[in-house]
Amino acid sequence: MKQKKPYTHLNKTEPYLWILPSIILMAIFIIVPIGFVFRMAFSQVTKAGLIKGFCGFNNFAKVLSGAKFGMVLKNTIVWTILVVGLSTVLGFILALILNNEFKGRKIARAIVVFPWATTLVIQASVWKFIINTDYGALNTLLKTLGIIQQNVNWTPTPEAFFAWEIACGIFVTIPFVCFTALSGLQSIDASYYEAATVDGANYWNKLFKITLPLVKPSLTVATVLNIIYVFNSFPIVWTITKGDPASRTDTLVTYLYKLAFYNGKQGEAAAVSVIGFLILLVCASVYMVSTLKKGDE
Amino acid sequence: MAANVRVNWGKLLSRILLYFAVVFICLFILYPYFVMVCTALKSRAEIFAMDGTIFPKVTMWSNFIDIWKKAPMAKYMGNSIIIAAGSTAIAMICGIPAAYALARMKFKGQTAFLGFIIVSQMFAPVVLLIGIYKVMQILGLTNSLLGLIFINAAFNQAFTIWLLRGTFMSISAEMEQAATIDGCNRVQAMFKVLLPVAAPGIVTTLIFIFINAWNEYTVALCLISTETIKPLTVGINIFNGYNMIEWQYLFASSIFAIVPVVILFMSIEKNLASGLTAGGVKG
Description:
The complex is a heterodimer.
Chain A: H1 14-41, E1 43-45, E2 51-54, H2 58-65, H3 69-98, H4 105-117, H5 120-130, H6 137-144, H7 158-186, H8 190-198, H9 203-231, H10 235-240, H11 252-261, H12 266-296
Antiparallel strand pairs in A: 1-2
Helix pairs in contact in A: 1-12, 2-12, 3-7, 3-9, 4-7, 5-7, 7-9, 11-12
Chain B: H1 2-40, H2 44-48, H3 63-70, H4 73-104, H5 110-120, H6 129-139, H7 145-155, H8 157-169, H9 174-181, H10 186-197, H11 199-215, H12 218-223, H13 232-235, H14 247-282
Helix pairs in contact in B: 1-14, 3-14, 4-7, 4-8, 4-11, 8-11, 8-14, 9-10, 11-14
């Protein structure tokens, strides 16, 4: 991007006028809410949502000493790592497959778009229906194929429910990874592979020495974005179990939603928001520091 | 000669494996949609029957008519369209000039602004719901479509600016310079020269925001309580009662919520993926 900036005599205030509408929009609807959340996290808040004065770390103390919080935090971490990790690996493999030339490739790509474009709440509803013990589609399918005789209870425990929610999360996240990886794959110059073939490299050499390093930037961006989205993802858990029973399938966002809008504990809910944000901030700074370091090299 | 034949066998085998994998993956991805369509065409009794079948025994096309009587489907759809179109319009009106400034001008605080855009991504609306609710109370926008439009526009600003800045930066500024020499001011140069060239990128961004706003669920769930101003994603849960789920109606109405955006999405998928990562890689 080495181009001369087009306008030499630039009015000093002019650029700010150009970004002003965007800043106003984000200030009112993102920054002000952030301010409220932080203020409420450190305030006593009544059931009706009135902010009543500073209370230090009281809300945080209540949240952290809550019996369920440890489990909810653990669930959130398991959820984020498994969904992001597995969908990154599977999405990359899918991208490798779709990067081949074959008949019907366009159709296959169009089909992979489906889960990316469909709203999460509907996908979660379908999966809820599929895994139902009494009339679910999975049991019907397996019985028709003769694989099982009796209905199988796919969700005997809350952990099993949570595992299905993770599976659903992976299913809906794969397409995003796949398409970002594909756009990376397609920008790789074929001459690299030709040179490697001449040098006698096999498929796996090429994959790990050429493909992976060159796709890594795209995959990294996708992973960073995914960590944020998956960590904050609400509809899947909400639709399938609402975090029940007894918060055993809750993640931080469903937990704080219930605290705020079901139990009237907005101060504590705000504290959970702040904790969640701090966790993401740590992850983001790790990423920033590592990219900055690379920039220095 | 023998070696040659063996290589061909290997190629054939990998070819067969490839097709096998592709067919399997496609079937797997389509399975939930297949279930949705089949269930939407069954009667309630058939869905809950002990000896269920994969396909409906009696095809109930009437489900697709009934949902319009049992729920204000037309209202839901209209609301979804208003929310999505309104959010897109505001996001673009605010985002285009900001992206233009970031791509074509140098100013103090530029890096800070870009940094803020990235950080703003970390706050999903769901985490800020309590704060958003407060702001909406102050503005008198709880339980209104306009409130949802602003929220969707604001939370899509990051993507809008990210994608558009990438598009604008990939276009040389020379044409605009020439236009200014011919007497255009900066705004005219942008409208007449840059935006037409950037049209594919703009359309991609536009559709992407439209789909995001159309698919949004959490904020609408929290802010909207009146049945007639709910968008589709929230409204169809009228069939998802606490004790009794009308699966056939839930899925029949879901199909109306899915089809338009899936078609839109297919049209931009190629540009979108490269746009999203390009913004991040070039930073």
